Structures are given as C-alpha cells and as structure tokens.
Q: What sequence folds into this?
C-alpha cells in the first residue's frame, strides 16, 4: 500500500516553529543575517568588532579639531556545518507518546539539537572573552561576586536594559534561590516570581534576566562552572539553513528525513562579555 511522502517544506516549517522559544544563548545573540550562497564548512568569514571613540580633548583658540576614524577590528570565524537525520516508519506515523505524535517528538528533538549546535559554538566563543572575574567556588556564585564583576567589567555602564542577560549553569542556579538580592521581598530591586523557571529564565538580578543553561557552562576538565554576563549586541551568529530533505524508502515502508545547517558565531564586542569562574588563568 502506498504511503504519502512527508513534505520537506512542511517538515522544515515544523522544525523552525519548534525552535521558537527554546533559544537560550541564541536569545542573547544578534542575528547577523544569512550566510552568503556558495560558502562551505571550513571557510572563514569576517566579523567586524566595533571599538568606541576616544575621549574628547581640550580645544584652544585656533586649534584644529583632530579627526579620529571609527576604529573597528576584524575576527575571522570558521563556518561550521552540522547535520542529522532520522527515519520514521509508516506504522509509527500515527503513534503517540505523551499526547504527541512520534513525528512531533522527533521534530522537537531536531529543533533542540539545531539550537544546541549553535549555542555550543556561541558558548565556546564567549568562554574565550578577555573580561574575566574569579569567583571563590567552582559551583556557586555569590551576590557580591556578581555585583563586583559588573563593576569591574562595566564600571558605571550598568543600566539593566543594556544587558542581554546573565547565563548560569544549573549547579550555580540553585544558589540564586537563597540569594537575598534575588528573592528577598524587602529589597526594591528584586522581582516577583524570581525562582520560577520559564523559557530557561529563572528570574531577574537587578533587572537583568538570569538564564539557566548547561550548554558550555561547565568545564569537565577543571570541574567548575562558567557564568557569563552578556551585554546586548555583544555576540552574534549567521545561519544558512535550507529545506529539510525527505527521501522515501519504499522497501522499508519508511521516510528518511535529513537536516543540515551551516552557521558561524562570534563575539562582536569583547567589552560586552564577562566570564565568571573559579580559574581564570
């Protein structure tokens, strides 16, 4: 008996829709647009990093105002190509697990691993950012340490709405639930609902979203967690994702679904990412 082939455009749309709301590190990053056609894995692509103008200088009568070019540095980032496929048998297409079809579950998995591939790359780039602050514990961050890291890294530029978020490992997140500056109703800067996790966000610290993610936030070699304080527009990514390909395997009474994605990630502003960890050497 013939079976209707899954439509590639439909599967592609389902995966893209399933990704929405699952992003954590990607949610902090700027979408720098699509990769150009014709690029391949291993190619390098230039990301421009903006540097701020210097301070104003004294001007005396008759002096010429010095012109300063907008200074930008460049970094060469390598394009990555990731792929995954799965088989779904005809007999499985109507199978449900937990109220969802088996196909829906596999689509959700594909969305998860797409995001995770990009976020692993983002996290690895952020871990190499030059701004670092040493904390005392391998798996905890204190309120004072976060405040001191904010001051050391960003000085008086600490308006909450200039930050994309604070990223912490789940081991570190548990400490926030007893942190006075995070949960105390007696303080004006705490938020109602802090500690209730939704969309990966566990609450706000001084108005800044705190995101719980285990992607690249734990160094298994040194057995210590990494936390990130990230400014808006400090990290970014470019993606090229075509339509998912679907092939009919009639001899198996199954459809084979193949997904691949090319992307690059990078730190756009090295002054916009601060890494908190025990070992910073």
A:
């Amino acid at each position: 008996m013939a079976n209707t082939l899954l439509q590639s455009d439909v599967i592609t749309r389902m995966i893209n829709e399933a990704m929405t709301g699952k992003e954590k590190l990607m949610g902090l990053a700027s979408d720098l647009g699509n990769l150009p056609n014709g690029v391949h894995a291993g190619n390098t692509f230039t990301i421009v990093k903006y540097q701020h103008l210097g301070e104003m200088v004294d001007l005396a009568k008759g002096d010429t105002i010095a012109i300063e070019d907008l200074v930008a540095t460049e970094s060469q980032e390598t394009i990555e190509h990731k792929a995954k496929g799965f088989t779904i048998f005809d007999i499985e297409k109507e199978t449900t697990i937990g109220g969802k079809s088996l196909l829906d579950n596999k689509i959700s998995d594909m969305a998860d691993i797409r995001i995770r591939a990009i976020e692993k790359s983002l996290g690895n780039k952020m871990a190499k950012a030059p701004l670092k602050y040493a904390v005392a514990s391998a798996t905890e961050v204190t309120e004072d340490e976060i405040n001191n890291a904010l001051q050391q890294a960003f000085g008086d530029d600490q308006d909450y709405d200039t930050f994309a978020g604070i990223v912490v490992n789940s081991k570190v997140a548990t400490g926030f639930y007893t942190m006075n500056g995070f949960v105390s109703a007696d303080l004006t800067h705490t938020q109602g609902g802090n500690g209730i996790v939704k969309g990966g966000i566990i609450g706000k610290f001084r108005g800044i979203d705190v995101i719980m993610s285990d992607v690249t936030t734990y160094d298994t070699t040194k057995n210590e967690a990494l936390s990130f304080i990230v400014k808006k527009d400090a990290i970014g990514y470019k993606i090229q994702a075509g339509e998912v390909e679907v092939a009919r395997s009639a001899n198996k009474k199954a459809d084979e679904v193949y997904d691949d994605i090319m992307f690059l990630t990078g730190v756009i502003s090295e002054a916009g990412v601060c890494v908190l960890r025990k070992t910073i050497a």
